[in-house]
Amino acid sequence: MKWIALAALAFVIAGPSHAQDPYPSRPVHIVVPFPAAGVADLLARVVARRLSDKWGQPVIVDNRPGASGNIGMADGALAKPDGYTLVLAATGNLTVNPHLYKLPFDITRDLEPVTLVARSPNVLVIHPSIPARSFEDFLDYARANPGKLNYSSPGEGTGTHLAGELLDIEAGLDTMHIPYKGLAPAVNDVVSGQVQYMFAGISSVLGFIKNGKLVALAIASEERSPQLPTVPTISESGLPGFDATSWFGLVTRAGTPPAVVRKIQVDVADALKSGAMRGQLEPLGLEPVGSTTEEFSEMITTESRKWTRLLKRAHVRPPPQ
Hints:
This protein is an alpha/beta fold. The chain has 2 domains: 28-120 and 245-314, D-Maltodextrin-Binding Protein, domain 2, CATH 3.40.190; 122-237, Periplasmic binding protein-like II (D-Maltodextrin-Binding Protein, domain 2). Helix content is 44%, strand content 18%. The chain contains 13 helices and 11 strands. A 6-stranded mixed sheet has the order 2-1-3-10-4-11, sandwiched between helices. The longest helix is centred in the last third of the chain and has 22 residues, at 293-314. The termini are far apart.
């Protein structure tokens, strides 16, 4: 029986030691609910490299696209509450999809905000055949041609779709939304002239703007973009307060120890302060942030209310699954 007693003693001694292992003591996964090579994926990989260097542990990016991002979000919502599974969520994942889809999880109950990682201004672009070279001219043209202009987006309920709906309501326009299955075909059809305009993240259309295949009319955020400094905001061009900025933030499973959430938040925020990080993100059209957990939580609540009201006013329905 002596060996049983010794084994029991060893378990008691080892138990607390294991429970107090510093975080992270093994690989951490960042789930990206979008395909590889997109802005969210590239952002996640930049952050992952920084954290891996700081923590001395692998930080692995897992792309889990599908169902408008809901598959990847479920991975985080149903993970163990230990901080080893993070999700880089976009605006729609946290503020739109819960009101469009019947989900197997609850955003508020099952996920814990960690930090707002970056903002991504959207820009209103048109095909050059449209006789407008300013936002004001575009509004005049659209109002003079009700029902004749189409705008594209990567799909129903996406941030750029809702930006288009917001513009219709705020400016009193009558246009048609054309949803696509992904960003590339949505952009390509504006470039080809099949569709007249769209809202898009700056990085996805900057090359077409520079070579003259698209015309940038206005930035859909509160401030101008350093990548397009001469392009005014919609707010300063006749629609004060207009803001349809996309953003990306880290969340983890609710119930994760507060000390772990705090460590992730602090380390990500510190990484985002570096000039090297800013230099990597700005070419992607991203503004690094690194907010506190409380600030990010309040932002999610505010944005959720804003977009829920718009979903109802615009009668947006989820696409068929």
